Amino acid sequence: MNLITEVKQAGPVSIRIIGLQGRVVYEKTITGVGVGFQQVSLRNINLKTASDIVKVVSSGYVQTGKLVVEN
Questions:
Q1: Which among 57, 58, 12, 7 is positioned nearest to 31, based on CA atoms?
Q2: Positive or negative CA dihedral for 9, 32, 34, 66?
Q3: How far is CA 48 from CA 30, 37, 71, in A?
Q4: What is the 3-state secondary structure (H, E, C) of 5-19?
Q5: How far apart are CA 40 and CA 58, in angstroms?
Q6: What is the pLDDT along the chain (71 residues), one digit of tens a residue?
């Protein structure tokens, strides 16, 4: 699964996927990310068909969105 996000300031990026029950089901931090649109590969992720929340934090900027998984 790939995620495309816009990074406003270079530095580490934290990606968190939160399930419907409010639990963190996936978390990844990437260092050395540059400014601009970035494609991030989410490996070893096993999400069932669901609607989860994805939260991306980069140098104080927070982006949240809905992640819909269909199998």
A1: 12
A2: negative
A3: 24, 27, 8
A4: EEECCCEEEEEEEEC
A5: 13
A6: 888 899 988 999 999 999 888 899 899 999 989 999 999 888 777 777 677 889 999 988 999 999 887 76
How far the first Cα of the chain sits from its last, in Å, is 12
Q: Report the candidate in 36, 41, 32, 27 with the shortest Cα–Cα distance to residue 12.
A: 32
Cα(66)–Cα(45) distance, rounded to whole angstroms? 16
pTM of the model: 0.79
Q: 54: which 2 tokens?
A: 């994805």
What's the rounded Cα separation, in Å, for the pair 56 and 47?
A: 18
